[in-house]
Amino acid sequence: MHGLMQDQPLLISQLIDFAERHNGSTEIVSRRVEGDLHRYTWAECAQRARRVARALDAHGLDPGDRVATLAWNGYRHLELYYGVSGAGRVLHTLNPRLHADEVTWIVNHADDRVLCFDPTFLPLVQAIHVRCPTVERWVALCDGSHVPADSGIPGLVSYEDWMAAPGLDYAWPRFDEHTASSLCYTSGTTGHPKGVLYSHRSTVLHAYGAVQPDMMGLSSRDSVLPVVPMFHVNAWGLPYAGAMVGCKLVFPGPALDGRSLHGLIESEQVTFAAGVPTVWQMLLDHVQSVGGKFATLRRTVIGGAACPPAMLRAFEQQHDVRVLHGWGMTEMSPLGTICSLKKQHDALPVDERLHILEKQGRAVHGVEIKVVGEDGQDLPWDGRSAGELLVRGPWIARDYFRSTADGPLVDGWFPTGDVAHIDEDGYLQITDRSKDLIKSGGEWISSIEIEHIAMAHPAVGMAACIGIRHPKWDERPVVAVVLRPGAQLTPRELLDFYRDKQLARWQMPDDVVFVDAIPLGATGKMLKTRLREQLKDHRWTT
Ligand code: ADP
């Protein structure tokens, strides 16, 4: 038809091309497994990504073949992001915190042909390699001098040697934007992990959504620290969004403790960071203990699990850092909503503004959201009516990789398994995961709300609330608490703390259990299934 726009496919290689051409001298800084800080530019990253692509051609990988990574956040991992997908192969980020058996299952399910790993993960690779017959090439992400001797891995090669073929000529192939680009498995709490296969189109559209001012609001002036791992839903898309705007990227490598992160934020003048609440808690604790400050950090996305209001307030009121509370899922690439204020909120008292910021926020354009009742009918956006949250959009999964089961969609909508309400202004609030809700005497209780209140107590370091079988009420809420070092607290004191906190009597927890640690899953989220197992013989004391 005449008069229409050009038909240019949306491809990941265009992102790195753009970064090279327009922001080629902007830095990418990485803490390496070797221990030092490595620095180079987007232009050098682009050149080396093309070398990766040539190495894949040389290896004879077919279009769509999977190249797996077991790696921290760093420049070599970034080169693989672009080199593998840009060359029409599929980048498969593996979660190294999973059990060796689970990693083996996933590698075999995905038929990975090449596997690149940080030397830190050599013991894991040694444990799995004989059980991963599809992997033809094991690549250690280091130079030749750091390749572990006597590793027992046949044909192990260093990344630098593997991609060292002379010459730099390489032209990114052009193909259909619906071509698969990357693969990430969600660790289901039941059954086997499920693979989510992203496309070039979904990835580029997601980056356009993420950088918008009311979302992450990124620009070429930012220095961005993705703490959220690149093996976890593409570090929430930051490697792509970063190239799209051409900002500085700062990668923490394996050093995720509070002191290392704070050091990096200050030395690299980080303006924007992103991570899950458990990691930010370590950072805040460290900064508090040394009386530190944030000279340049102004915004941080916190998501993957509910951000405790006490954490949001500490960032906002003690450090002048705006928390952008975000919600998403692996199946959503992952961005669904981010919380930012509207103009009309400027006039509100501080407390009310903070209360809005505690919500999971507004949908990014590209993600439609709705909540439905048990009958499947839409619920009103009144900030009260809670139901199952469903989503629809061009970067949301339709189905799982190689799944033979029926697809998850319900009338074209993806059921998130989260329970939420939405207010008149479109602000989403997650009240629970459907499987974490506590059913007491026929009424539902939100575990998130109970955890948030405990986290606001100065003696509490971490809190997880679960429902425990109860002879009379079916289930009753119990909070498992990790105390801060040196803090003293009795169960009674914490239960008293719940009074006058806007909870009805029946919504308050019935008991408090002090534990040394809350079991965390492979992405740093609380593993409530494990906690339920630990506390299954709980005896009621109250
Ligand atoms: P990610 O951790 O990147 O969000 P996952 O697929 O591992 O992706 O987990 C998605 C689930 O995590 C969501 O369905 C929801 O239950 C929970 N979740 C994510 N972000 C939040 C948030 N801000 N508040 C509450 N729950 C969240």
Task: Describe the model.
The structure is a single chain. With 542 residues, the protein is an alpha/beta fold. The strands form five sheets. A nine-stranded mixed β-sheet has the order 2-1-11-10-12-13-14-15-16, sandwiched between helices. The protein has a seven-stranded mixed β-sheet with strand order 7-6-5-3-4-8-9, with helices on both faces. Strands 17-18-19-20 form a four-stranded antiparallel β-sheet. 47% of the residues are buried. The termini are far apart. Strand 1 and strand 2 (37-41) form a beta hairpin. The chain is globular and about 70 Å long. The structure holds adenosine-5'-diphosphate. The site of adenosine-5'-diphosphate (ADP) has 20 residues, from strand 14, strand 19 and strand 20. Adenosine-5'-diphosphate (ADP) binds at residues 186, 233, 303-306, 325-330, 334, 360, 416-418, 430, 433, 523.
Helix content: 25-40%
Count of beta strands: 25
Residue fraction in strands? 15-25%
Distance between the termini: 74 Å
> In terms of structural class, how would the helical and strand content be classed?
alpha/beta
CATH topology of one domain: the name is Rossmann fold
Q: What's the tally of helices?
A: 16
Can you give the mean pLDDT? Answer: 94
Low-confidence stretches: none
The level 1 CATH classification of one domain is: Alpha Beta
Q: In this structure, how is the largest beta sheet organized?
A: 9 strands, mixed
CATH 4th-level superfamily of one domain: ANL, N-terminal domain
Strand order of the largest sheet: 2-1-11-10-12-13-14-15-16
Q: Based on CA inertia axes, which overall geometry fits?
A: globular
What is the rounded Rg?
24 Å
Give the distinct bound molecules: adenosine-5'-diphosphate
Label the CATH architecture of one domain.
3-Layer(aba) Sandwich
